[in-house]
Amino acid sequence: xLRRCPPDQLSLAAEYILxxxxxxxxxxxxxxxxxxxxxxxxxxxxxxxxxxPRIVVRxxxxxxxGVPELSAVTDDVWRDLCRLRSSDFAKVLRRCIKDKNGVxxxxxxxxxxxxxxxxxxxxxxKAATRESRVAEGLFQGFKLAHGxxxxxxxxxxxxxxxxxxxxxxxxxxxxxxxxxxxIDVIRITxxxxxxxxxxxxxxxxxxxxxxxxxxxxxxIDRDNGKRSPLLEPTxxxxxxxxxxxxxxxxxxxxxxxxxxxxxLLLVEGxxxxxxxxxxxxxxxxxxxxxxxxxSLRAYVAIAKxxxxxxxxxxxxxxxAERTMKQLSRKAQAVLHARSxxxxxxxxxxxxxxxxxxxxxxxxxxxxxxxxLANYARTLKYCYAAFEDRVADADLWxxxxxxxxxxxRDVKNxxxxxxxIMNAALEYAGRHPEVFS
Length: 436
Known about the structure:
The protein is mainly α. Helices cover 67% and strands 3% of the residues.
């Protein structure tokens, strides 16, 4: 049957006929597929498809030109050969990483890093040094390889050294969030020394595009109950003053992020040097009051409560997320309201409607609890219209066909995800007992 299978279906046939049906469950299928080999003629067929990668362009609302990516067949075959750790596939990828198409180069780097053969380490680092998209693929692939315990000590050291150059801002200094996986790579390749490096002057400087990401990682660690280093006060306040100057001079290219960065540093200051932090809070508070939805305002409130010994509301909410089913309905409602705000901030109202299920009801209750009754009303009416839509209606054009008044309300809420998140933080700061 496999010999009669059309070439573009060979991958699926090999998976679902040869493996899955004989193993009886998805879990056993993926477990077996990750460590076993395929018959030689099937492997030859997959390699033939892999050697001729195809690109398709996906259309998205608001993007006139669409987004190029590997076709579904190419992507399936490449990932299957990565799971099987095919050395013949590595030969194909060595050509692809030099392809004229940027999508193919990036995906080839991810797959080569996932295969983690020592012979490819230098090639990967050189290609990733030239092009940030290739570096992005390298880090994603290495994390997959590390999860399978594939990389050798030599391979790991080379990737760690490259990741340090990226995280310190010495290469690809114009790239921001896309390379933040480099931080995770440093931590998994050198857990003993990672935080010492990340909290040093090598990483904590204003020209480093990953500065925000490094500081956020420390906050996430604390929220999850892990230890993270206290920043050296002289270094911290020097950096704080530089960010404050950039804001006051109006030179911040990303104003909202710079405000958030100043707030993060202020919170770090409370931990490292509470005496000076108390004075800086008064100055920052004056600036924050000038902005109606200032992210700095939320951080100032957190810093003030921390000085009084109150728990960090970020930590309160993070711990609550892990035990949500054990919490009161009120606490669950606030957490779902915050998730609604996060979805608006990171994606869109449409995405939330498409994925929320029945959670929108608790989100409405949470918005009411946070004093955002108008947002709760908008979500309720919009979800009712969403359920009444024609079944095959395009989700992304759904908002455009709402009644004008409701459409205006939805657009207003969609712009204020950060306000909902800040309201949840302030609530957790005032009422930490609700989440215990």
